[in-house]
Amino acid sequence: MKKARLRSKVGAVAAAFAASAALLASATPAQAAEYNVTDNCDVAWINCSYGDLWLLYNSKDLAISGDRYVTSWAQFYGNVSDYWGTSQYQGSTLTTYRYVFNGNGSGAWQYVKNNAASVQNCAPADNYRVYYNSGYGGTSQYFAHNEPYGDCNLTNLISALKNNNASQHFA
Questions:
Q1: SS3 for 110?
Q2: Domain coordinates of the chain in residue numbers?
Q3: Cα angle for residues 56, 63, 150 (degrees, 5° grid)
């Protein structure tokens, strides 16, 4: 009698295991999509119209020749906790946007994180800080907004942040 109950329990466990395995085998695997963007306003879940803090690949002496940029840049608006990029699940798809410099000149299509040498703040009212670490940590440098009718403030990153920059925050 005890053997019969034991066999029926073992059979029930085996049936449950087989059903679980069948479900797992038929489940759709998660998808992944990755995109490169030069402006965090191009990220689907970030609500802004344009980036007003520009990170430039070269220092300011090498960034502009005459009246034109000869280096690549990326634009950002607001708080960016990691210049490596941002990810979010949309349904079963993990969508990742990587921040890269545009194809304008030197540094074209390089990742922004730890590759910028200068910053240009074109914001009419927003001040920013650029940080050494992701998540707004470590050494930082302050960048004031531009004055009304003034040019964007182009400034070299301090030596601690030049090619060692990972995040930005409103200041």
A1: coil
A2: 31-170
A3: 80
